[in-house]
Amino acid sequence: MTRVAAVDCGTNSIRLLVADADPATGELVDLDRRMTIVRLGQGVDRTGRLAPEALERTFAACREYAEAVKEHGAERLRFVATSASRDAENRADFVRGVLDILGVEPEVITGDQEAEFSFTGATRELTGRGDLDRPFLVVDIGGGSTEFVVGEEHVRAARSVDIGCVRMTERHLVRDGVVSDPPSPEQIAAMRADIEAALDLAEGTVPLREARTLVGLAGSVTTVSAIAQDLSAYDPAAIHHSRVSRDRVREITEWLLRSTHAERAAVPSMHPGRVDVIGAGALVLLSIMERIGAEEVVVSEHDILDGIAWSVA
After folding, report:
1. Is the Cβ–Cβ distance between 264 and 270 less than 8 Å?
2. What is the reported pTM?
3. Contact between residue 135 and residue 212 where contact means Cβ atoms under 8 Å apart
4. 91, 100, 186, 227: most buried by Cβ count inside 10 Å?
5. pLDDT in tens, 253-279
6. What is the four-CA torsion angle of 73, 309, 223, 209, rounded to 10 degrees?
7. Which of 6-10, 35-39, 87-91 has the least mean pLDDT?
8. Closest to 256 measured CA to CA, from 248, 12, 294, 236
9. What angle is formed at CA 140 by the lines to CA 137 and CA 145, rounded to 5 degrees?
C-alpha cells in the first residue's frame, strides 16, 4: 500500500483525497476526502483573471489541506488544477501561492488529461460489473467545463468543452451582477442553445451516441441524485452508483430552473455553494441525456480526484 494525496482544484470547488492505494488489487481506501466551495473561477469568463478574493478563498482551503496531508503522513502529493486556472491571465499568482502552502506546483492540465483522470477514477470499479454495458460515456460536469470520455477499459476518445455550471450561470443567468431568481424563459433558451452548440463540438470528436452506459460525475450530478432520492442530508454512500432516470432528471431540472434561491437553499442535501449554479449544471446533464438517448445516468462519487490518486500510486 502507498499512502497518497490528491488535490483537484476546479472552477467552483477544491477537493482533497488522502488514501491508501494498492495498485496490485485496484483498492483505494479513503482516509480523508473533503470538498470546499471556493469559486476560484469567479468572474474569469468576463475578466480573464482570477479575482483576489477567489485566490484567498482557495489558499485558505489549501492551508487546511496541508495540515491534513501532514497529519496522515502521505508519501506523495499531486495537485491538479483545471479550467479556471488554465484560462486566467494571472495564473502565476495561483501557482506561486499553492507552491508556498503545499510544497508542490499545481499542474494546470489540459482538457484531455482531465478527461483521462476522470475516466480512470469513475470506471475502475465498474469494469467488472456484468449489469452495465460498454462502452461507457463518462461525463464530468465541472464549474468551467464539461469533459466527455468514451471507452471500455481505456479511453477511446475524449473532449473538453466550456459548458460548466458556473460558466453557464455567469454567461446566461446573471443580470446586473445578480443571478436571476428565477431565470426568464429567454435566459434558459439562450443557455440551452449554448449547451447544444457545445455538444455539437464534443460529438465531432467523441462518438457520444455509441455509449451504452452513461456515468455522471461531479457536484451537479451528485446533487441531482440526492434530490431524486429525497435525502435528508448529502450522503455519499447513497449517491455513489445510484441511478437516475432521464424523466426524473428532467423533472428536477425544470423545478430548479423555476425555483427561487430560497427554495433551492432549503433542499437539505444542497451545498450552499451550489444553490445559484445547480440549475445550469442540471440542464447540462439533461441536455446530454436527451442528445444520446440515455434512459438513465449512473452517478459516481469517484471521479477525477480518484484518477489523480491512482496516477500518484
Report:
1. yes
2. 0.80
3. yes
4. 227
5. 999 999 999 999 999 999 998 999 999
6. 180
7. 87-91
8. 248
9. 125
**pLDDT tens readout for residues 57-71:** 999 999 999 999 999
Contact predicate 112/156, CB 8 Å? no
Q: Tell me which residue has cell 479511453.
A: 155
d(CA 139, CA 123): 11
Backbone dihedral region of 106: left (phi > 0), alpha (psi from -120 to 50 degrees) or beta?
A: beta
CA distance 35 to 14: 6
Pairwise CA distance, residues 221 & 248, whole Å:
12
How many whole angstroms separate alpha carbon 253 and alpha carbon 183?
Answer: 13
Q: What values do phi and psi take at 3, rounded to 5?
A: -85, 115
